[in-house]
Amino acid sequence: MSALDSVLIQCPYCWETLEISVDPSVREQEYVEDCQVCCQPILLKVQLDDDLTPHVDACAENS
HSE (CB half, 13 Å, CA atoms) of 26? Predict the structure, then answer.
């Protein structure tokens, strides 16, 4: 079992920087996580490159 990677994102609602955990064993992921500050739903799209470095796109769930 792989350890989780930490990634910093910016909330598309309140613009706060948040730290999220990403599972590096899944190359493509899409899920909703609530902002830890303003509680709005953030749609997270995660892709791992060939070096297993996570790239996260964080956008408003309703956009």
Answer: 11
Q: Is the dihedral of CA 30, 34, 37, 40 positive or negative?
A: positive
Provide the pairing of β-strand 54-60 with 41-48. antiparallel
Written as one string, the DSSP assignment of 3-41 is PPEEEEEE-TTT--EEEEEE-TT-SEEEEEEE-TTT--E
Query: What Rg value do the Cα atoms of the chain yield, rounded?
Result: 12
- pLDDT one-digit tens code per residue, 48-60: 999 989 999 999 9
Do the Cβ atoms of 42 and 11 come closer than 8 Å?
Answer: yes
Write down the pTM of the prediction: 0.87
